[in-house]
Amino acid sequence: MPISKLVSDEDLKFLIENLEETNDSTEIWENVIHKSNHRISYTAKRCKPKDGGGPMKYLSVTVFEDCSAEIVRDFYMDNDYRKLWDKTVVEHEQLQVDSSSGIEIGRTVKKFPLLTSREYVLAWRLWQGKDKFYCFTKECDHNMVPRQRKYVRVSYFRSGWRIRQVPGRNACEIKMFHQENAGLNVEMAKLAFSKGIWSYVCKMENALCKYIETSHRTQGPILSAVTLMKKVPSELETQTDNVTASIGTSSGEGLLSHVVAKQKKKLRKPSKKLIAKGLVLVGGAICLSRGHSALGAKVALAYLLTKLNKRGTSLNQTTQNTSI
């Protein structure tokens, strides 16, 4: 497929429908987390697609205080800066940019404890609306990146975000939709996410503060999806204007309004190896860069293993999963 057709306005429409939650009112969402401090708030929920239609779906809202939408957009897209503070990202390279469509293709390798490194080959595109920015990312192939046995290539990736100012406040909101299949155990990925994500969000906020203090760092490539950003089509702009109540506008609380009551279930104690296999999904489920960051992996691993060791858990459980 030509690079100009990898990410289309139809993908933007798909993203908007998922962010506004207008595509399927019968979906049942599970609340994952809702935390905040004086600098940041974060809310996330998840949903298992009907009839096994793809990986687990995540929706999250992050609100940063005292920053603009433009700065947060550039922070998320600045992979050179991201490699300085996100230690799971060991490689990132720009592969190709199409100046006519604004589509960029890149390759990222992320390293996790006890796991084979995951390789992401992705295409993404940005749009600018009246008072907001959108980005959508999906997996692709590229002739410059043949598959290698030393990496696990992520086979399915659908992720996107909307960034905008919070009305009446000096704050910025990013809402994200995410689906990813990296060949992991779903239950352990869910556990790792819920235990590790808040620590990572706080780390991300600290990195953003430093980014702002450096007088808004300049992006690396001259040509990129940011510099070639397109306008939101008028019919889609009208669609978003007609939404009377945006979910999670100021603090992410709106994201909880359609969430089913959280049920506490006792889980079997997992093995260290199985916990590690659940960590990679954490990398995609929160908004950062183009939505494919490795979020909370090391934090979650340290937290969970410490808890298991303190309780003297017998680490002998077996699991059905892909080999590492």
Automatic annotation (TrEMBL):
Tree of life domain: Eukaryota
Organism: Arabidopsis arenosa (Sand rock-cress)
Protein name per the record: START domain-containing protein
InterPro entries according to UniProt: START-like_dom_sf, START_lipid-bd_dom, START_lipid_transfer
SUPFAM superfamilies noted in UniProt: Bet v1-like
Signal peptide: none
GO cellular component, one term: cytoplasm
Ranges for domain START: 17-213
